[in-house]
Amino acid sequence: MSDIQKQYEFDTEKKYRNLPLIVIAGRPNVGKSTLFNRLLHKRRAITDPTPGVTRDPIEEDAFINGMPVRLMDTGGFKLDRVEGSAEAVLDELVVEQTLAALKRADVILLLLESGTVTAEDEEFISLLRPFWDKVTAAVNKTEGGRLHAEAWEFMRSGFPELLLISAEHGDNITELAEHITAKLDFSGVEEGEEEKLLRIAIIGKPNTGKSTLSNRLTHSGASIVSDYAGTTRDVVEGRFEYKETAFQVLDTAGIRRKAKVRENVEYYSVNRAIKSLDKADIVFHLIDAREGLSEQDKKIAALAYERGLGVIFVLNKWDTQEQDKKTLRKAEDMIRIMFGQMGFAPIVALSALEGKGIKLLLNTALEMYGQLSRRIETGLLNSALKEWISAYHPPTGRSTKFRIKYMVQTDTNPVKFLLFASRPEAVSQSYLSYLRNRIREDLGFSMIPVVLEVRASRKKWEDRESENR
Known about the structure:
Blueprint: H1 3-8, E1 15-17, E2 21-25, H2 32-40, E3 58-64, E4 67-73, H3 86-104, E5 107-113, H4 119-127, E6 135-140, H5 148-151, E7 163-164, H6 173-182, E8 190-192, E9 198-204, H7 210-218, E10 236-242, E11 245-251, H8 264-275, E12 282-288, H9 295-306, E13 310-316, H10 325-338, E14 347-349, H11 358-372, H12 378-391, E15 404-411, E16 416-421, H13 429-443, E17 451-456, H14 461-468
Parallel strand pairs: 2-4, 2-5, 5-6, 6-7, 9-11, 9-12, 12-13, 13-14, 16-17
Antiparallel strand pairs: 1-8, 3-4, 10-11, 15-16
């Protein structure tokens, strides 16, 4: 254990605030994302041989050499561009994001690749001169002594020391970790409780304005915004507060039809977008008001619906439409037709670019989160159930007959109920739909999906209660 570790003795199970920031930077394809994943001890950043895979900065809390830090992976610094191309515009935006990250960094981990020193290396190193005291230089892909002689050529740039590593194979990663933490000041780090967050996943087809909305909500430029479809590749996280509630925003890659997903990078991007739903409470499903709906929107919404998530349909770019009630009503009707089983989901028209409609969106999200967190007392629930059964009796036919015994709420966020019946196999989907609708309408779950399962029981709720006393 190092002297720093002995002094602080950080607990890996706890959360910490005011963490020092380590930014991994360098030109494309030197292995920054591989190193990020190595230091994080999990596969968080997308890695692929294709240069320029990482665009938006990705941040995660990590423990390096037993010390809590904030770790950031950045896009590659790229000089070789085809002027006027969409890629050139994106490359310039990536560089701007990287330079902004360098200013925030406590340590800049400059990653180089063993071999010929390139013009991009030299240009990037020159840009780092104002931050020289924060720079730690490491040469990657030197596993097993590979290209060691060539790696030392970087010493001409004036680095006080140089670490030869292999992010893929783990060579000298321990030495690198010790070197980084020795340069950091941990005196301002504070232990904190697990922060309760309302987690929002922004999903939709490419180019619907997801990153623009994410930046608007977080009051930042964390997500790169471009007209180029597929700009966002990984999930970009951001945070903000509204009405004393802490939000976490997950800006995801645009989800296209499988037939159009040809590149490995896009395949991983779409998978990450879908997996982000597992971390979300509420989904903002963005729809471009100019283009309307497609079958792909239906498939995207189904992913959230199946998980029991709250969904808000966001008609973005509404500033491009006629600002009258008739136009809005027509757009809402189209959504209701397309998403028949999600007639309960709110619809909000806004302009992420101009900031119009943002308060309505967030107020709707807060109300929805309240419903997702609501729990109904079992006695009240079963009193309501008796009224529902009285209003719509179950079938009485010999093969369709069943008796409903009682109901309990088993979970919140997603909201789940369990219905006990004498013959579960006889309970029709139409009757379950009826009960789900009554739960939503009568018990305060009007905006969200309700999961209702059936299980066999011969006892009534009152009998079970008396047995438990």
